[in-house]
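[audit] Reproducing an earlier prediction to check determinism. Same input, same settings, fresh worker. If the tokens differ from the archived copy the diff job will pick it up downstream; this log only records the rerun itself.
[audit] input (263 residues):
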Amino acid sequence: MLISLPMYGVVTEDVEAFWQALRRQLIQLSGSDFPATLQWPEDLLSHWQQPDLLLSQTCGFPLVAFLPQVQLVGTFSYDAPGCHGPYYRSFLVVRDEDRHASLNDFRGRRVAFNSADSQSGYNALRAQIAPLAESGQFFSLALESGGHRRSLEFIRQGLADIAAIDCVTMALLRRYQAHELTGLSIIGETAAAPGLPLITSAATPPETHNLLRLALLETVASPQNVALCERLLIRHFSVLPREEYQVIEQMKEQARQQGVTGL
């Protein structure tokens, strides 16, 4: 069975520790064994599509666009600016020299994005710039960085001027890697969307699916895990209906109707 929690690995030791706490809960509830360590896959889309995937965390955009077959386990609520319950948003990050600018001031400038299948770094920003675009264009150049932290590096280095960065990533960096935010400012935010979903394979039987939900709920609620969850900014675990994630498809469609199909 495959298990990963790849999306907020700013401090991988804490993510691994959370898995150990969750694993203990799963073993206690089921009497079965589970992998001792997490996987950290390079090809996430392929990983999420594996039939023996027991648990992983994906992004809302791949969930609605590429992963109709997976089952939704639930969503964490994070204690971070920009989060409201299980919903999150992105912050528009620029160099300090542009801290008094508005998004409209970045017409014809360069944007960095983590990947084109990202809700936080791409789809949410595309929806934000769509009303400002002219003939379907707003930025002069869009650079794919491969990750939010690399997008921030692109801005610091002057390779790009703006990026939309997941608010949970920003909060974790501010706490643990504050130097990566040196010289950067926030000038705005995107619309909110449901947070990064935890998923399991379509082949996971209902009793195991329910086990995962119960174990996650009890792990997050357990007093002995308070300090660990606080380090990861995890506040609650809840189950959202899959229909809630359709707001992500609506963002894409609204941008398309305004003539914008990309950054």
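[audit] rerun output stored. Observation attached for the diff report: The chain has a mean pLDDT of 97.
[audit] end
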